[in-house]
Amino acid sequence: MKVFSVAxxxxxxxxxxxxxxxxxxxxxSRDATVSxxxxxxxxxxxxxxxxxxxxxxxxxxxxxxxxYERILLGFDLPINQAxxxxxxxxxxxxxxxxxxxxxxxxxxxFWDEQSVSGYTKKIDGSQLGSVxxxxxxxxxxxxxxxxxxxxxxxxxxxxxxxxxxxVSFNSLQSGSPHVFTLGFTF
Length: 186
Known about the structure:
By secondary structure, this protein is mostly beta strands. The chain has a single domain, classed as Jelly Rolls, CATH 2.60.120. It is built from two helices and 13 strands; from the N terminus they run αββββββββββαβββ. It has helices spanning 2-17, 145-150, and strands at 23-27, 30-35, 40-41, 46-47, 58-63, 68-76, 84-89, 100-107, 126-133, 140-143, 155-162, 167-170, 181-185. 31% of the residues are buried. The model is unreliable at 1-18 (pLDDT under 50). It comes from Coemansia asiatica. This is Ubiquitin 3 binding protein But2 C-terminal domain-containing protein.
């Protein structure tokens, strides 16, 4: 038994020394819809952008005339030495009437899932890229390696945006296996 354990450790060490890559699928660690708009909610008594949606079962992205919702994702990374990262966009909860574009930007990690709102989190960040989802129930993926490589403190936060179409996805709180994931190669 000891011989096998030592052999397994040596084999693992040699593969690391030889530069072998490993890829892990990481589920999003925290997520929220953040509203940035001038619309009033709760019987016109409070701005919608002051409301917290971090513990909702659904994530919503929409960019309309006055209504603007973004999805905020947080990933806990196993190590700070990523080689490649692919963000996997899950299929939407409800099929859209056609295709849509998903745009992803990197942002800071200074937010809490329970309390984040349009008042506590700025619309900031550097755009990483976009992917076109061409059919209503489809999913997409986007290479965000640069953001993973530059991530600090084992954390990565991303904004997810859709153009025109209102698109809803499952959040962690939904219990669904179909949530945002990250293919993390190290």
